[in-house]
């Protein structure tokens, strides 16, 4: 399906603001995400009363209290399931899921992969600080192996999940990655995620200033970010670097880092990012990339057309109604063998 581009702003940023205090730690990356969402949602053209934010449990899941829309603070790991019900019951709503790396990929892991597999038209924001912040610093499913935390004092011995790989393995139609220190990048991606037809998943690399401070510093630091991040845009060459002289090249069906001007490499050798071809196996390589050999891929890595769950469901319901005289629950209750009890006087 094509991306919905027929929209016009009908509300303003201030319409989504509340006067109540935001109870996140000072310096938490969630503040920047909240601010960017308030700036992004108006540009999707959806009326405020048609926007719903659903969350699970965790620091990220306080989000519905801090934005002036309908909201549902649900159970641990169950945000995707509840959001699915909301969207299927009323497909006209713009439904957002706000979750953390623990909430979505530990107790909520099964709901996470299946909402993506179904391709329900909702938007999932994963606040990935690679730690359990609300419960005071235990390692999470995305905590790097070897990390010392409250529950891994000798270092974590578990392999971490890569959210992008989970999305790809679940046949996801949209995956993007952004960082909380770049509001411009976040806004561009959030708007495109909202306009995507199907489940959009945006991993936000977020800092937890208390329990996992500077967890993403190796790619967000001012002295390294240009060389350690690559911002991908569909149809444009995959170039990065402080001097814009590095790039990614296809070689033997994989990507490799090359330097423009060395060994005869020119800009023509740099691969063009293709986010929209479903069979593009390089999407997997891009979500896996990371330091020290590769830059971390940011922006929209995958955005492909696919059938949308609730549209197909309602088509099936309409088709079934055409073939039967039973159009509603009353028709069903009054069908088949029925009898009537007449009140008689004793």
Model description:
With 346 residues, the chain is an alpha/beta fold. 27% of the residues lie in helices and 17% in strands. The protein has a domain of 213 residues: Rossmann fold (3-Layer(aba) Sandwich). The strands form 2 sheets. The chain has an 8-stranded mixed beta sheet, sandwiched between helices. Strands 8-9-10 form a 3-stranded antiparallel beta sheet. The longest helix is centred in the C-terminal third of the chain and has 14 residues.
Brief characterization of the structure:
This protein is of the alpha/beta class and 346 residues long.
State the main characteristics:
346 residues; alpha/beta; 8-stranded mixed sheet; 17% strand
* SSE string: HEEHEHHEHEHEHHEEEEHEHH
CATH topology of the domain at 13-225: Rossmann fold
Mind telling me which CATH architecture of the domain at 13-225 this is?
3-Layer(aba) Sandwich
CATH superfamily of the domain at 13-225: Thiamin diphosphate (ThDP)-binding fold, Pyr/PP domains
**Portion of residues in helices?**
25-40%
- Amino- and carboxy-terminal Cα gap: 67 Å
Morphology: globular
How is the topology of this model organized?
Layout: H1 30-40, E1 51-55, E2 70-73, H2 79-89, E3 94-100, H3 101-107, H4 109-118, E4 123-128, H5 163-169, E5 174-179, H6 183-195, E6 200-205, H7 217-220, H8 225-228, E7 229-232, E8 239-240, E9 246-251, E10 254-259, H9 282-288, E11 296-303, H10 309-322, H11 329-333
Parallel strand pairs: 1-2, 1-3, 3-4, 4-6, 5-6, 7-11
Antiparallel strand pairs: 5-11, 8-9, 9-10
Helix pairs in contact: 1-6, 3-4
């Amino acid at each position: 399906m094509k991306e919905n581009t027929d929209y016009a702003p009908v509300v303003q940023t201030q319409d989504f603001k509340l006067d109540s205090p935001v109870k996140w730690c000072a310096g938490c990356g969630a503040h920047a995400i909240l601010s960017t969402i308030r700036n992004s949602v108006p540009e999707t053209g959806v009326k405020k009363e048609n926007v719903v934010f659903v969350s699970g449990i965790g620091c990220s899941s306080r989000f519905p209290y801090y934005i002036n829309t309908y909201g549902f603070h649900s159970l641990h790991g169950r945000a995707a399931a509840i959001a699915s019900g909301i969207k299927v019951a009323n497909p006209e709503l713009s439904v957002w899921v706000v979750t953390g790396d623990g909430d979505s990929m530990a107790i909520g892991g099964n709901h996470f992969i299946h909402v993506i597999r179904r391709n329900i038209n909702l938007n999932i924001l994963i606040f990935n600080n690679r730690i359990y912040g609300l419960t005071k610093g235990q390692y999470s499913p995305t905590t790097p192996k070897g990390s010392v935390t409250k529950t891994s004092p000798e270092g974590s011995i578990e392999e971490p999940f890569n959210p992008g790989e989970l999305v790809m393995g679940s046949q996801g139609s949209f995956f993007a990655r952004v960082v909380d220190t770049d509001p411009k990048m976040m806004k561009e991606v959030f708007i495109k995620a909202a306009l995507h037809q199907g489940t959009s998943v945006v991993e936000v690399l977020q800092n937890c200033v208390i329990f996992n401070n500077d967890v993403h510093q190796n790619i967000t630091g001012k002295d390294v970010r240009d060389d350690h991040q690559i911002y991908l845009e569909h149809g444009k060459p995959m170039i990065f670097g402080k001097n814009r002289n590095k790039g990614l090249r296809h070689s033997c069906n994989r990507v490799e880092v090359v330097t423009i001007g060395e060994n005869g490499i020119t800009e023509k050798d740099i691969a063009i990012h293709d986010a929209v071809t479903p069979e593009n196996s390089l999407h997997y390589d891009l979500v896996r990339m990371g330091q020290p050999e590769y830059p971390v891929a940011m922006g929209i890595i995958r955005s492909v057309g696919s059938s949308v769950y609730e549209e197909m469901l309602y088509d099936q319901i309409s088709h079934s109604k055409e073939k039967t005289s039973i159009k509603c629950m009353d028709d069903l209750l009054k069908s088949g063998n029925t009898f009537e009890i007449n009140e008689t006087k004793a």
